[in-house]
Sequence to fold (690 residues):
Amino acid sequence: MKLYVKVFASLRQKYPDINDFNPLIIDIEKGTKIIDIIELLDFTTDEVHLILLNGIKASIDTSIEGDESILSLFPPIGGG
Amino acid sequence: MNFGYMNKWLKINLTTREIKDFTIPEETLRKYLGGKGIAVYFLWKHGKKLEEKGIDLKELDALSPENMLIFATGPATGTKSPNSGRHHVMALKSPFTGSIGSGNTGGKWGAKLKFTGYDGVIITGKSEKQVYLSIIDGKAELHDAEKIWGKNSVETSEWLRNEHNQSKAGVSCIGPGGENLVPMAVIMNEEHRAAGRTGLGAVMGSKNFKAIIVEGNEKPKIAKPEEFEAKVKEHVEKLKENGVTGQGLPTYGTAVLVNIVNQSGLFPTNNWQKGVDPDAEKISGETLTEKYLIGKNPCWGCVVACGRKTKVDSGKYKIDYTEGPEYESIWALGATTGINDMGAVIKANDNCDIYGIDPISTGSTIAAAMELYEKGKIPDEDIKGLDLKFGNADAVVELSRMTAFREGLGYWIGEGSKKLCEHYGAPDLSMQVKGLEMPAYDPRGAKGIGLNYATANRGGCHVTGYTIAAEILGDVDRFTTEGKAGLTITFQDFTCIVNSAVNCLFLTFALGLDEYAEIIGPVTGWDVTAEELLKTGERITNLERMIINKFGITGKDDTLPKRLLEEKMPEGPSEGQTVDLETMKQEYYKLRGWVDGIPTAEKIKELGLD
Fold:
């Protein structure tokens, strides 16, 4: 099944062309864990601080169950 | 002498032109700390005096000479502790909301004020002629401001630095917005920093008071210098190591939040009709950094440097130099008005800065006007050629200027969305609390921030209690209402300490109350604990609440717009959500020791406020 991956802020240093309009599309098996995607993209778990699966907070151990899910990865960020 | 403080305050009656110094006893300083806390204490006393004169505070005109305006620093301000260039500004009553007037601002003005030898300035009365104040090397003088009346914030600052031959002086001033008594006018400092909310600039303008220039060489004395220096070093290291303060904010500025808030489905779009802006990427921190950033402009003593220097290279919004925009102004002048042109957002934000009006309330009120127009509530003759469709960047840029000069529909934008929407017969389209437009997080997607908006004393405000740090950027469940009362109270009372210290709220991404005690202790020489500080924060929140109770503001005003309580979020990751405010609010009151938004006699006694 298809997974859309979006990366933000300093994670774009590795993937400068990936953004909200242009996600990375990868084929995965149902039940793949987010940690596997993070490793596939050559990120460490320290670099990826906030994870959203279809806009909802998830962890590295969360399994991806739905086709065409959106995985959004962020480094530590804040503001106000 | 009290360590950490300059031990001198300035009080000026502009009606009589009397200028006098006074000191604050240690007991009072320890009880209210400084900055916002001490300002709230003075405002409470001033309110009492007005009542003794027979003035009903409910009826007090915020633009009358009786209103009091305070510029305040605290024990951390101007020391080597990180990010301590800030100051807090307050007025007894806001001309914009009718609640208390309050704003915190960056730059260097706070530190520079302390270097003049003063901890703060209290302004009362009304000057017959237009005046400004200089405090240079300990000497305070009023001057004729006729030559700078009408100048914008950048021109005013340049003129004053030249006139006094002080090229590095701090300048706080109003622009045309404040002079024209626009209710949402701000007080600017260092050209692009603002005490931005609740219309403090209009209070200044009503007093015929244009500016304060500050410069000096005195330094606050530290009680335990060695212990202090060691803690400062430790804290700076923590700030540099922390991913938010050491990397996210320095690289992308506050606008780095655009994408995560939008991806989470709580980025208010088209006047809060939606929570996802499909074009948010175009107005994101990443886009700002890639295409518009030309440098950083940190506040005095700052180790984070979120301040942005920007330009727009070409096109009709070309601008060679400005600062910002911040996350909030990008949202207000961008997403909620449906704009995805970053150049237009930068131009409109620059208009707000130089003319001196609040970008959050400006953008949010324009968005309300756009929805009124969409729903056929504003007749064409009232908009005189402006195209008020969502997404029309020209209208936002033009209205951001017209508002400061009270031209055409700009008059109503300046009055704010509450009055605008009442005027056009659709009050539910105004997205405000207590008359103050809410900022850029839809509480249908983060319930705690909704409780904070509802209960914040100054109105719809995020920086009173920034629960977003826990709900969106941290591990707290954002949709539940459970535990949000306690969370909100802790954030609100801790923030009172930040605003009274005075230093930067962004420190709290890396430093907690224990670290605040580690700084306040050696600076002042007091054996202060995190518990004592949190109690001080609670005291400040309660005294501020006691002031707004005097204006008739109670539990009925601790609410949210109907849209957030009743209309389900239509789409995106927060789809189907509303805010169950009442459950959270009752728990909040119980924990606060309040009944219907009013502190009980027991609570008042417990906090030593009786």
